[in-house]
Amino acid sequence: MNLQNLRVFLKVAELEHITRASEELNLSQPAVTKTIQSLEHEAGLELVERQGRRIALTHAGRVLQSYARQIFALEREMDEALSALRDVEGGEVTLAANRTAGVYLLPSLVARFRTSYPQVALRISIMNSSEIVQEILNWTLDFGLVEGDASSLPSGLKVEVFAYDELILVVARNHPWSSLASLPPSALSKQGLILREEGSGIREVIEHGFLQHGVHIRPLFTLTDNEAVKQMVLSDVGAAIVSSLSVQRELANGDLVQVPIEGLELRPQLSLVQRADKQLSRAAQAFCSFLRPALEKESAFHRLSVQNHVNAE
Prior knowledge:
Arc Repressor Mutant, subunit A; D-Maltodextrin-Binding Protein, domain 2; 3 domains; about 20% strand; globular
């Protein structure tokens, strides 16, 4: 099968649009259409079907897309391996981090990595944990940083737990709970919490933790961004359980108050995840080697900061 034709097909499959694919590939629309038809003839199967101005993949098209991703991931690995022989400090790293690690841990670490490896190109995405796992399985990422129960991740992944986050209940300083020494878990079932979306590692840890106490948490509403959750709590819209990493400043200046939950400790695992059968480039290996001790140190510092704040109260 012609690799250039396969490359055209993969672009069409990713964009679900022939015109947009032709623009990105700098090819005419008829040329892209002819390429897809040629692949269908070669495979003896229909690969796409039109749905108005867009296209959708058939089952055969999804199978071909999966193998095409693997082929071009291997092609990129080959290029990076050869590049590494010429320049061990060059190359490209493609990774994603969950929103907590991506916003509150990764920036300072990336800055330090860039000082040591200025020639390495970094492509970083911020997604929720379930999206990261899917992209890794689809061969589009070298590795990812995810949060949640590592034992629940799919097979075929190499998972390395490097640290633990700490989830805490926070309220605005004028909230009725702000003066309480603690709350039983059952109290949180009576008033909805502001929660992250389903698929978020934090959401899964919260729900699992409360179910172990026989408590079902109902969302007041859901948001896909940690900062948006924090701003809602600051505005006294409601209470939320958030990563301690995200509220350091607000706890320190008294805008938010931590309320301990009796008998409940929520410490989701932070894990480095990659495909077990994927060979990382020299650049990606260097990033991982730099990342592990730095994240362990960073997360330990934040946990200590939170504990010192609670003790001071």
